[in-house]
Every structure is written in C-alpha cells, then in structure tokens.
Amino acid sequence: MTIDCSTRDGIARVVLSRPEKRNAITPAMHEALTELWPRLEADPRVRVIVLTGKGSAFCAGADVHEFLPHIARLIAEGKDPGHFCGLTRRVPGKPMIAAVNGPAYGGGMELMLASDIRIASDKARFALPEVQLGAIAGAGGITRLFRELPTAIANEMVITGNPIDAARAFQLGLVSAVHPPDELAPAAEALARRITSNAPLAVMASRDLGAIAGDDPLEEALEREREGFRQIVETEDFRIGTKGFGGAAPPIYVGR
Predict the structure, then answer these.
(1) What tens digit of pLDDT does each residue of 197-225 get?
(2) Whole-prediction pTM value?
(3) Residue 66 bears catalytic tag
(4) How far apart are CA 103 and CA 208, in angstroms?
C-alpha cells in the first residue's frame, strides 16, 4: 500500500505516496482508499480531510499497466469495473480539501473533483485524457465536470483530453486558490484548521445542503434549508456559539 494517513488536531492528512510513478493509483491503493474513507468518516477525531500527493505530482490517475488486468478480472467475475478509489458513487462523509501539488490527470482529476475545497500549486495541471486511451472518464469525471463548467468548456476537456493549467482552473472556478509550491501545504493546513474551529454539526449541515442545493426547485430547496436551520438551533453547539459570540475566547464546540 502506498497511501500515508495521519490524524492530528482533527485533521486527517492523506498522502498519495508513490512519487516515482507520479502517484499513479494501483489496485492496492484503490482498495486502501476505498476502505479508508469510511474509517475516517466513523472516526470522531476527524473533522476534515486533506488529500495531496507526494513529490512533484498530485496523481497521474490509474496505473494503466496494473489496473487494466484488475479491470479485466472484475469483468470476468461479473463485478462492476467502474468503481474508483471509493469516490465514484459517494463523497467522503467529512469535508475534504484537495491540495493539488502538481499534475492531476485522469483519475487524479476525478479525485480532485470529488473534494469539497480545492487549492492548487501553480505547477498543477488538470486533464481527463481517457479518450486518448480509448476510454472515458467514468469515475465521476464527466458527471462532476459538466455540473461545474459550461457545456462547451467541459466538452472541450473530455473529448480532446487536453490539459489546462492552474491559472485556467482558477479562472473556471475548479480551484479556489493558486499558491506557489512551498505555500500550498500551509494554505491547506490553514483552511483545515479554520474548518475544525467551527461547529461540526453546522459545518456538515451547510456542506450537505450545499451539495444538493441545485437538485430541486427553489421553494423545495429553501424549505430544506429552513428545516436544517430549525434542527441546528436545537443543538448544544448553537447555544455555545451564540453565547460566546463576540467574546475574547473562541467557543469550544462539542458536536451535539
């Protein structure tokens, strides 16, 4: 397994650690990540996840030489070959920040697209080049990209496979900030610490409501938001936060 994970101060730091292969995902890494997300979701110590790559790349996607035999085996066994790293059909149960330290291609870009917040090094590049290999970006890449970008721009990316740089990704809103390489990790850490300082139930409710905000008619979405607010004001965290508002010491939330 070439995934490193450590947890401290409410932050789970997940590092794709195969730098000699640009952090390309092997079947073993795929299985490790698939098992990791539910564990982090169930771990009460974890409030936020930071995902990054070791070395000069974020992730080059699936290791074709190792993954193709794996996919062939799945098909032969009648299993679904379209599942990738546990994020194709679900998102992590905790907020996830992708700190994209270098190229994010194919499945690497799909991992980035599954994250809640994305920041990038100015060395990062992004591409879904699967069509150049006779495949498609079938692990959430097409669906998530078309939900975020205008159709013509998303089409250009998925049917040419051409990459874009970090400045273009920022312009399109795919990442929220671009940093020099040596400032990326501190920026991700600062974002994560800001999230862990907030009320955990309010963070999760805000994130979950935002994820489905555009799925229903406006009136239904607003009613769902109002119901979320009604539930939050009944929590102990709400009472702690409002009682301590404007005080010298930051509130200490309990997640209830």
Answers:
(1) 999 999 999 998 888 887 778 888 888 88
(2) 0.92
(3) no
(4) 29
